[in-house]
Fold this protein.
Amino acid sequence: ESARTSVLSSRWINLWKHTPSLNLKAPVTPFAVRDIEKYNFVRWVNCVIRSHKAPTLKEFVVRFTLDRENRHAITRWLEFAFSRRVEKLEFDFYGYHDASYYYRFPEKFLTLKGPLSNNFKSIKVLSFKCLNVTDEDIDFFLRNCPLLEQLIVHGSEKISKLEICGSSLRLKHLDMHCCYNMKSLEISVPSITSLAVPILARLLIKNVPMLVEMFVNCA
């Protein structure tokens, strides 16, 4: 929509490139996406981020049926988001029943020695759907994103025994869903106000004085 306005005036041609919010999604039917549609979507996103000029991002949302076959492009998108000190990062790659096809979050980002080492501190919202993250990935973000308030993870098969604990955490909303290999979850965060968690053999919730909403699901 921002790009379309550029036809109204030559002065507006490049204005859209400075927008602080990129919400990139296409209206498609899950499970019916052809390879050519994936190719076109990836090419479109790559074109947008190459043209984007804003030094920071309030939000970067990508929502489409993608998988590990698109991993190189997805990794570039992560690098782009972190380099712009993104505040809200949402990746939703819906469309697959088998989590083994999901994109795996790269370990190379989970280091404080690289060029992006200080770029996690601005993150307030993380949402990963149909994308595999591990216990260690989540622990890294909790420790290195001091402003993180909302964490959503749907469909990861790599989570097993997760601990989300710490009086210094600012986390307010936690949503875990369809993480079928999760065996245990421990939560101890005074700032938590809402929870959506699965029924587990070991589910321990303590020290949550601000909790006002809780949803326990069977997945």
